[in-house]
Amino acid sequence: MATLGAALAACGGASSSPDAGADAAPPADATVLPADAAVDGGVDGGAADGGVDGGVDGGPSDAGVDAFVPAPDGGSDAGPSCGPCEVPPGMDGECVADAYCLDGACVQDVEPDGVACGELVGGAPAGVCVMGTCRPRGCGDGYREPGPTATEPDAPAREGCDDGNLEAGDACSPSCEPTLTLVSGDPEGLWEPVIPQQVPVLAADGAGRLLAVWLETKGVPIAIRAQRFTPGGVPVGDVLTIEERGVVPTVAGLDAGGWVVGYYGDRRVLGDSSNDPLARLVAVDGTVGPERVLAADRTNRQEDVRVASLEGGFIAVWEEHMPATRGWTAVVARLFDAAGAPRTGDLILSDPAENRRQYLSVASDGPAWLVAWSEAESPMLLEARIVARRGQGTAAVGEPFEVSGRRLAVDPWIVPAHPVGEAPNGTFLVGYREDRQAWVRALPPGDVSAAPPPVRISMEDERAGFPAVAPLPAPTGSDAAFVATYDAYPRATPLYASTPLGPEGALLRMELEAADGPPVLTPVRGGTWVTFAGWGGDFSGPALRLFFLAHP
Predict the structure, then answer these.
(1) Is the CB of residue 454 less than 8 Å from the CB of residue 433?
(2) N or C: which end of the chain has fewer CB within 10 A?
(3) Closest-CA residue to 281 (of 230, 240, 247)
């Protein structure tokens, strides 16, 4: 398999007179539907338009007539209509708590997946709510049953997965057991899908929909590709081409839907072939947006991009090579809204010391975010330590602080410490390598000196690296629980869990024996997606694969 290092080395309107008595400023709902032919967009042109306005009342002189509100409306309107908007009839209505108009759209507040619904059979509802609809309960309904508990001893039997169908050949079998599914690969081995080490390459958006990204290579990089999946792991649509002039792709899901794909490449007309941090938005329907340069200041060479979702948008971080001293780098961040518009300028997170910084990681938990990197006074990183910086909203908080010791500590990996769906608490899990061993440390808010000590997850006789971490439901009385993988020599890729896994853990351990490089872990509701390149099947070269590890 071509290494990523080798691959990188080879690439290099309305009238101006308002109604008499009109409000001083139009309200926010002045937008009207195109079908309202007598509407002028919110401001009357005088008598010529019959006193009809697009949502801005002119008071009594307007006769109370606007595009959507019957007269008289007292000088204020109810905004654009969204037509009939109500809770659906029948069993589906049991899965919708409320329905209302908002900015011209009908919004439904749906019940959480897993709520019982439908006709009573044997004294219990026979259906289950899934994405706002009531479906017959059972394998293939799209809701993974967590199984009986102490408080619900009569709950349906536990399922290892449920992708909403009873078909074979995807990530979940017809009996609701996880199966290894193909993301990308060439049976003839003429090209290979490459995922960068220690880089998130699979992400879920706010609805759980997945996007996987990889670098397609044929001796040299060809293009950054992507594939969409349902929350259950069923492929959606064709393979997408994100960019043909970029490397080291990474991805984050957006709360409002869709994803942001980060990467870097040379986009400068003049200069010394310096790289820029870049990104493209990918819509839920697979539309790939235009390329965006993430940095406000493009003076220096910038690379090694990472992205993470953040309330209302995303955060991007990158490594910036400063020109004053050979080998000196800084860690820079910038925040964006969900449409890709900047919310801040460039934020330098590292301190002014002329040190070498690389191997970045970033994650968010509600409005809180954390960025970590490896830092050393020498470019050789012989005394490197893991350093981190917190943030809240659009601002960095406090100063950089050390997470590890100073024994060649590299490869940080950050995730929130609680399972997806639980309330944010600002605590993160940081996995990293130090002195050829793999470690995980929980970082609650506040002074790092009060944080619990790190947990070693590798064996003493191993040479470990590239740990990836995902949270598990914490047992009663425990602050945090997690599952982790790492690259190890001479063993096959190990799987570590701080609390017992379900039966799928043994199956995953067996599948990881064929892994060619460290896996990537993506926490989602109810479990963790494991992405890795591996050998086997009908492929003469490595193929990119997915496996779902349900919470125990």
Answers:
(1) no
(2) N
(3) 240
Let me know how long the chain is.
552
Output phi, psi for 353, to 5 deg.
-55, 140
Instruction: Report the DSSP pairing between strands 105-110 and 96-102.
Output: antiparallel
Torsion from C-alpha of 128, 132, 133, 138, nearest 10 degrees: -30
In the chain the first and final C-alpha atoms are separated, in Å, by 34
The contacts of residue 94 (CB under 8 Å, 6+ apart) are 111, 115, 117, 118, 127, 129, 134
Enter the DSSP assignment of 420.
T
Tell me, what DSSP letter sits at residue 344?
S
SS3 at position 60:
helix
The four Cα atoms 521, 522, 523, 528 give a dihedral, to 10 degrees, of -60
Of 3.30.460.80, 3.20.10.10, 3.30.70.141, 2.120.10.10, which CATH number belongs to 181-550? 2.120.10.10
Residue 446 exposure: Cα atoms within 13 Å on the Cβ side: 7
Q: What's at 362, amino acid-wise?
A: V
Q: What is the 3-state secondary structure (H, E, C) of 153-165?
A: CCCCCCCCCCCCC
Q: Which residue's entry shows tokens 């992205």?
A: 307
Q: What is this structure's pTM?
A: 0.82
H or E element in which residue 9 lies: helix 4-9
311 alpha carbon, distance to own chain's centre: 11
Residue carrying structure tokens 């010391």: 353
Instruction: Please list, in sequence order, all residues whose beta carbon lies within 8 angstroms of the beta carbon of residue 13, skipping any fewer than 6 positions away.
Output: 40, 41
Measured from the Cβ of residue 75, the count of other Cβ atoms closer than 10 Å reads 16
**Each residue's pLDDT expressed in tens, for the chain with a length of 552 residues:** 444 444 433 334 333 333 333 334 433 333 333 333 333 344 444 444 444 444 444 443 444 434 333 344 444 444 566 878 989 888 889 999 999 998 888 998 999 999 999 999 988 999 999 989 999 999 999 999 999 998 999 999 999 999 999 998 889 999 999 999 999 998 887 889 999 888 999 999 999 999 999 999 988 888 999 999 999 999 999 999 999 989 999 999 999 999 999 999 987 755 555 789 999 999 999 999 999 999 999 888 899 999 999 999 999 999 999 875 567 899 999 999 999 999 999 999 999 998 999 999 999 999 999 999 999 987 677 789 999 999 999 999 999 999 999 888 999 999 999 999 999 999 999 999 999 999 999 999 999 999 999 999 999 888 999 999 999 999 887 778 999 999 998 778 999 999 999 999 999 999 999 898 899 999 999 999 999 998 766 666 789 999 999 999
Parts of the chain belonging to CATH 2.120.10.10? 181-550
∠ Cα 251 253 255 (to 5°): 160
